[in-house]
Design goal:
Length: 147
């Protein structure tokens, strides 16, 4: 039992330190108009061979799942839980992902936190559509044609 507690403490510290470095770096990489766009731009994966593309998609989705799990843990442990969950969601491919991202970033606390991080790094704030604007349910499609 003491080994399990020591492992939990080590994982918690590693997750905290990793999130303190990775989350802000990723947040400043997002274009300020990302949530205002009505369509996805092609990614680096689009031009790759099908096998390599499939491997990278699996790895990207796996990393997203780990970030979501870590973010949920950080809701009770030290760390940036909500922002880590948002980053995990942004990595995983699933129908309705863009709508969920926009809904999460519209939360005042999340939006304020993202822009605080971006301001500290000298980046322009993330722009979000108002509640009455299109939430992406209309004609929005991901690059692969899915919603």
């Amino acid at each position: 039992m003491p080994e399990a507690i020591a492992l939990l403490i080590a994982v918690s510290i590693a997750t905290l330190l990793g999130s303190l470095v990775a989350v802000p770096w990723i947040l400043v990489q997002i274009p300020s108009d990302y949530f205002l766009r009505t369509s996805r731009e092609p990614t680096l994966l689009d031009g790759m061979s099908p096998v390599l593309r499939a491997i990278l998609i699996v790895l990207k989705n796996g990393l997203g799942a780990v970030l979501i799990a870590g973010g949920i843990a950080m809701l009770v442990l030290p760390g940036q839980g909500i922002l880590t969950i948002l980053l995990g969601v942004s990595l995983i491919d699933f129908p309705g992902k863009y709508r969920l991202e926009r809904k999460l970033v519209r939360q005042e606390a999340v939006h304020r936190s993202i822009n605080w991080v971006r301001r500290r790094r000298g980046r322009e704030p993330i722009l979000i559509p108002g509640e009455d604007e299109d939430d992406g349910e209309g004609d929005f499609r991901d690059a692969d044609g899915s919603r």
